[in-house]
Amino acid sequence: MGLEVKEKNNHWIVEKKYENGWASNQSIEEGNIVEFVDGKKTEEHSTVKRFNRVEMANSITIMDNKLKVHKFNISYGYMDPNFMFYLLFPMLFITVTILLSIFLYLKTRNNQSSTILIYFLLSIGICYLGASMSARGDLIGRLSTIITLPSSIILFTHFLKSYFKKYDLVFIQTKSLLRLYILYTIFLLTIAGNHLFYIINNFIIEFKLLYFSLLLSYLLFYIFSFYVKHKDSEGSTVIKILGMIIFLSFSPFVFFYAIPTIFLKNEFFPAEVTAIFLILIPIALVYLQLSEKLFDIEFFLNRLRYYSLISVPFTFLVVIILSFILNFKLLSSLTVMAFITLSICTTLFLYVKEYIDYKLRHHLFSPKGNFETSVYTFFQKSMYETKVSSLITNLKNEIKDVLVVKEVFYIEVIEGEDEENWGIKNRNNFPALIIEDVERIKWNHCSIGTLIQVMDRFAIVIGGDQSRKNIILFGMKKSKTNLNIQERIWLETLAYFSSILLENFQLIEDLFEKIKNYKEKMEIKNNSYPLWLSKLMFSLSEKERTNLSIDLHDSVLQDQLQLLRDIESITEQVTDSSIKNDLFILKERMLDNIHLVRETCNELRPPFLNELGVVQSIHNLIEQTKLRCTFLLISELDPSIQKLDKEVELTLYRVIQELLNNAMKHSLASKVEVSLRKNNQVLSLAYDDNGKGIDMAELDDSFNTMGIFGMKARVKNGGGTIEINSSQGQGMHVYIEFKEVHGVKKN
């Protein structure tokens, strides 16, 4: 009925009429006296006694302000617009939650988070259904709402705790969750006591709404703090989605009903209107529970902000026009419903339009205007180019073909010494009119992708820095029309991509030029390669070693291990002793091959060099060498040496590895000594063997092998010095020294 009454001077006065109630359409005014309800005194009616509201009555007798008595017979047999709020929406909502709960139970019945989610869905469904009954003054509806509204928040918190376990994240501590259940129990006992003694009043209603608002604020605070703490974790997207859904679902109820009722004693919109948004919760939660791939929430939110910015002004204007045409109140629940419905429909339409544009993009635009294909074609043409001139030629041709323009120029402008005027490089290559127009512009304010009009031409920046700009200048289209939005976006996209290619091509050309200049110098004067080139070569070498080691380990080694397991399995099934013996020999050969592959992987990539440190890694290398070598290997490694610079560590390891390999393969030595010492900030490595030695004058420095040159280059790159002494029959003596080495512990 929607009629709130208040006792005053032994009379029950109409205090308020609810907009969606039966009384809103009757000639009943605030301040009228309610004489009888169902032929009995007003105070004897159950809903008046409990809730100070006239509900579930068949007749009501009213005395108006002119002291005239009117009797109203109330019929519930017709369908009015309130039918949607009080019956249709609640029934649809509870049906959806029940169906989703059954679906969840059948799909994931043994999942704890799914079980809690089912409880939550049923709780929120009963809450919505009970709210419509409570609005009619039904005691069962009022009690079910009191029980399920706050419990839904607690159950949802419990669900989040269980759900995030699969991401190894703790949403809320068990003790905190237990406190929520205890406070909820105290809340129910307080409400039950008031119901038993008929002390229900506005204070209790405000108490319930305040308790729910605090619970919701507590949950949103936990979600926000949880996201801040784990925003880089795997479950960050889920946190965003949940926070957004909870806020959108409950905020209308809190901001438009609960808070105004608590502080202003009058709601902005009825609870049954704001509760419609609860339908978002079951849909979103079931999606999260069942989906393996989540939608991009960042993309969704950015699009939502953009589409809302477009739809809200349009919707607001339409609602104002409709209010004048249909003659309904501008500030009413009907207006709000129309505004919300139109906003949602407009936003959804924009989402659908974007999807349709994507699907039909090949049919909506002609091949000449298919700018996405043009960008793709440009990339295909530029894929195998290495020169800046070729890139610029492709770019000019693409602009000329797509926009159908006659002239396209590539211009480089340079900032003058006064930092205000700009000049064109190679001025003789361009007409005087173009030079005058281009140099008039302040290019220091133009970034990459900036498109500006230069008299009757257009210019777009495709590269450069603060003092230099690379520009493409082109004339008007043959149709003499201005550039449309799609053409501008296409040009900006092409400029951004071209800037990346242009910068890389310029770096490649600079590198080639440096190598060429160095080669010319080497022809004049025999000298060592520059330090930067050596570092580049060794960096590439180490990268290839690592890649090869990973490939060997993940492919060849794993295949060998699988073959070994197959041989062992076959051996167990064979009874013939001769075949078993052959399989045993084959197994031993497989083990040797596996060991060889592992050793090769270890040589290509030093195992645990960063984890164990250089001393322990070299010690392991020496111990492995002792198992294979035929000479006496004596080592002295200073244990006080701590973690060094990575480049120095790798240099020491590689040099010792190369020296020991040469000793085993070529030196014919009977004794080898290796020592690694430190003295203050100086690190020294000494190597001596009594092998056949080598003629230093016959060494051929080359990039193709490690050799003597490789060791020299590595040590030089690491900032050290190396001295090698050897001659035929006198063995080899190597001394390496690194000064000002950091990471060496002092005595």
UniProtKB/TrEMBL annotation:
Its EC number is 2.7.13.3. The keyword Zinc does not apply. PROSITE patterns: HIS_KIN. SUPFAM superfamilies: ATPase domain of HSP90 chaperone/DNA topoisomerase II/histidine kinase. Residues 652-742 form the Histidine kinase domain. GO terms for molecular function: ATP binding; protein histidine kinase activity. It is an enzyme of class 2 (transferase). InterPro entries: HATPase_C_sf, HATPase_dom, His_kinase_dom, Sensor_HK_TwoCompSys. It holds the Pfam family HATPase_c. It comes from the Bacteria. The chain crosses the membrane at residues 83-104, 116-133, 139-160, 181-204, 210-229, 241-263, 269-288, 309-328, 334-352. GO terms for biological process: phosphorelay signal transduction system. This is Two-component system sensor histidine kinase ComP. The lineage of its organism: Bacteria, Bacillati, Bacillota, Bacilli, Bacillales.
